[in-house]
Amino acid sequence: MLCWSCRQPASGHFCPSCGKIQPAQATDYFSFFSLPRKLNIDLPSLEREFYRLSRKLHPDLFARGSAQEQEWSTEKTSQLNDAYRTLKDPIARTGYLLELEGVKLEEQSRSATDAARQTGAEKKQVVPPDLLEEVFELNMQLEEMRMNKQVGEDDPNIVRDLQQAQQHFEQKLNELTTELQNDWNEWDALIPAGSTEPQDQQARIRVRDKMVDLLNRRSYIRNLVRDVNEALS
Amino acid sequence: MNNELIVGIDLGTTNSLVAYMQGETPVIIPGEDGSNLVPSVVALDNHGQFVVGNPARKILIEHPERAIYSVKRLMGRGIEDIQDELKLFPFRIAQDVEWGEVLRIKLGERELTPPEISAIILRQLKKNAERFFAAPVSKAVITVPAYFNDAQRQATKDAGRIAGLDVVRLVNEPTAASLAYGLDKKKDGIVAVYDLGGGTFDISILKLHEGIFEVMATNGDTHLGGDDIDNRLLAIAMDDIANDLKLDIRRSGEAVQALRKAIIETKIALSAKTEANIDVELPQGKRYQRTITRERFEQLAEPIIQRTVQPCKQALADAKLQPDQIDEVVLVGGSTRIPRVHTLVKELFQREPHTELNPDEVVALGAAVQAHILSGGSAVTQDMLLLDVTPLSLGIEALGGVVAKIIQRNSTIPASATEHFTTGVEGQTSVAIHVVQGERELASDCRSLARFDLKGIPPMPAGLPRIEVKFLIDANGILHVSAREQRSGKEAEIEVKPTYGLTDDQVEKMILDSFDYAEEDFQRRQVIEARNEAEIILTALEKGRRAPVWQRLSEDEKTQIAQREAELNGARKGNDYKQIRGAVDALNQATMNLAELMMDSAVSSALKGKNMDKTEMEGGPTQSHPIAPAEITND
User: Fold this and answer.
1) B614 and B608 in contact (C-beta within 8 Å)?
2) Would B276 be classed as within a structural domain?
3) For residue B435, which of A159, B64, B167, B254 sits 20 to 30 Å off, Cα-Cα?
């Protein structure tokens, strides 16, 4: 690529010869920060890098530049902000990596759940088999709670049951976080030094699918917790 | 490096200010009357000219139908979401405004949109700055409430364009305030800015780190402020008047405005005193007098002040912080002078809040700092960088009217999201996208921003086209949308229908109109001034006729003067200022000898020991007299 301004070879955000900002390129969030696709990320150094790049790319620094430079700066800063926002959050980071690995997680999202609810369709989520019994019981309690609310009755037993369920599922969420950490370690171990992606394709798919299952269970349980919180409020 | 002049403007609900960076300190630019605050009131005077600020406030009291205040409340809004507002504010909305249309407000015989009215205020601030610098000012940073949505921001930017200003950046008010405070205290930590103004409330939580001002969360209410307290007191006072004095003043605009003014003065007095009086003269020779204690006032204002609590809690939750993790709290906006607001903030954040900077001025000062940074900065601002957020989630309407969120609230801006769309019918060549902003789950409960029509999709079987749509929120918090059909690689054509805003064409037209009006205004002013000049010279001539020196003029001169006088009397009935001025000049010439004679006689009278004042009373010339020789030789 040649620099648009001085016509010298250029790569990266700025031309090494004349220092002008270069057009925004489509990029993934890991590469934007020059990181391998590893899931264990050192957050303080990610933040430092975010601040360092902000000080170079932010539109405020191009207020006196050409319209074209302003546009590139805005676009690059939006990539920087989107990348930082996604990578600093453990769940968003995992979800994003899985998307890069070709998995669509959208059906688990809250909006999809809401959409399904709104149209009266069944949630597309499949109940994790080991939770079937608990979820069945919980749904009955929730239903009872709603009926009570409608007629203005107050059943302390139901409230107590729901509070217990709330604690139980929050505990499960915590367990999943620990489990996720193990998957991260397993994934990161697949990426050899000097490489940005796993090389062992079989292991790659195995760990990926484990994380997909985990995120699905997690979002399922989160929705349950949300329903319980709503019923209790 | 040569920095460009960019001013900082706080376009407030109640008052507006303009500021700039003088060396290392931001300072407010005063208006012609020497005051820093320009009341955000626009009025049409008797000559059909717009007046802004204190002169407009006078018209507001005497002819409420010719003035408008608090127009910021209407920016970027539609007729259906201001129904509550209309019960409380004397806004006169044009009758033919339809759902989804930009509002038009009646002002005297004119009809103007909220951005046009704001533009009149901005033009006044621009004029004040130009007068101060004796140089043109064309670039500005304008502040907006952090919780302003896209439509409200766009409307503010449009107002700037109509006023002939290049709006280099829209900055959130609390963030601007933190910049003004951060200038002398370069300290790292977490800061909460509580901004309760005339019409809007914002809470922002920022992380300060080596000059980076990173907004972590923001929340607020764009229709909550001192105005609401005034309205509550006003309603109670009107009830009192109806009950005790048997007088219904609701229909009398003048009486309501007089009462409102008295109530605001009482409210302000109660911030310093524990008791204050309301005393207003009313129609039919009646009088409303009442003493209000601060305790009673706080009781009445409490429900309004309490409405700021939930947004504060939400902002803390969004920033994932506990109140005790906040290092500093800053108070902004005139309403934070109310002692109860001060104690509430202290309770909420468990900190004594900062009030070192004038809460009315701090936002404008911060805007000047940001303007300085954008113009290239200097040693003081070198390391300063603002990283702001979008206050509301951005979503698109999905099947069943639910919202699919694509950019979450409190995302650092610029921020973007990419979505893919396809067709549902074979051969379909366009797809409609409805973009909304807000936190509710149904699109109908969110703020509709715009409907985009993606056009020019190559006809293909249903579901085959793959249209990539990119949503980007820029550093001003304003949304930009672009689309591409991926199979053909063609840039898709987008037709935008902003829900409550002005289209680009409308803004262009208003810019042109404002030039037209500027020309028309100029003409009108010239005619008025020329008529005034005519008036002065004709009055002076009357006096001259009665003076003894008149008899020393030749008959020829007297005829000449009479002829020129008749010509001027004819010309001043018309609207051609050039003709009036010409006739004034001609009469000036014809009366040159008379003026000289009068001057001589005045001087000799003075020498004879006569009092000059007395001579003047007898018709002698004064310095400003148009028949004075100095005036004539000037030509």
Assistant:
1) no
2) yes
3) B167
Tell me the per-residue pLDDT of B175-226, one tens digit each, with 9 for 90 and over: 999 999 886 666 789 999 999 998 889 999 999 988 899 999 999 998 899 9
Q: pLDDT band for position B517 (50/70/90)? A: low
What is the DSSP pairing of strand B7-11 with strand B15-22? antiparallel
Q: Tell me which amino acid residue A76 is.
A: K
Spell out which residues of chain A touch residue B373, defining contact as CB-CB under 8 Å: 60
Distance from CA of A142 to the nearest CA of B (A): 21
A111 CA to chain B: closest CA distance, Å?
5
| A29 and chain B in contact, CB less than 8 A | no
| Residue in B4, B209, B374 closest to A51 by CB | B209
- Count CA within 13 A, CB hemisphere, residue B554: 5
Q: Which of B275, B304, B333 finishes a domain?
A: B304
* Domain span including residue B473: 394-502
Angle formed by the axes of helices B592-607 and B555-571, nearest 10°: 110
CB pair distance less than 8 Å for A78 and B441: no
> Which of residues A93 and A231 earns the better pLDDT score?
A93
Q: Say which amino acid occupies B62.
A: E
Does domain A1-88 correspond to CATH entry 1.10.287.110? yes
Cα A31 to Cα A94, B80, B397, B581: the distances in Å are 15, 47, 32, 73
CA A146/CA A155 separation, integer angstroms: 11
Integer Rg of chain A from CA: 23
Q: How far apart are CA B61 and CA B581, in angstroms?
A: 35
Q: Are B313 and B331 in the same domain?
A: yes
- In the block, residue with structure tokens 């064409």: B505
Residues B116, B22 within the same domain: yes
Q: Which residues of B touch A81 (CB under 8 A)?
A: 411-415
**Is the bond preceding B283 in cis, omega lying within 30 degrees of 0?**
no
pLDDT digits (tens, 9 = 90+) for A55-80: 999 999 998 889 999 999 999 999 99
Do B99 and B183 lie in a common domain?
Answer: yes
In a 3-state reduction of DSSP, which class is residue A112? helix
Supply the mean pLDDT for chain B: 85
Mean pLDDT, residues B221-232 taken together: 90
Query: Residue B186 has what pLDDT?
Result: 63
Strand pairing category for B189-196 and B328-332 = parallel
Are residue B162 and residue B234 in the same domain, yes or no?
no
Residue where a domain stops, chosen among B360, B387, B414: B387
Asked whether the beta carbons of B128 and B85 are under 8 A apart, the reply is no
Q: What is the DSSP string of B174-191?
A: HHHHHHHHHTT----EEE
| B34 found inside a domain | yes
Which helix (H) or strand (E) is B15 found in, with range? strand B15-22
In DSSP terms, which residues pair with B421 in a beta bridge?
B467
Of B624 and A132, more confident: A132
Let me know if residue B144 belongs to a domain: yes
Residue B176 covered by a domain: yes
CB-count burial class (<10 Å; 0-12, 13-18, 19+) for B615: buried
* B368 and B282 in a common domain: no
Q: How many other β-carbons are positioned within 10 Å of the β-carbon of residue B92? A: 17
| 3-class DSSP state of B418 | strand
Q: B480 with B467, same domain?
A: yes
DSSP class per residue in B226-266: HHHHHHHHHHHHHHHHHHHS----TT-HHHHHHHHHHHHHH
H helices present in B407-503, as ranges: none
CB contact under 8 A, B400 and A59: no
Q: How many domains does chain B have?
A: 4
CA distance A63 to chain B (A): 6
Q: Give the model's confidence band at B631: pLDDT under 50 very low, under 70 low, under 90 confident, else very high.
A: very low
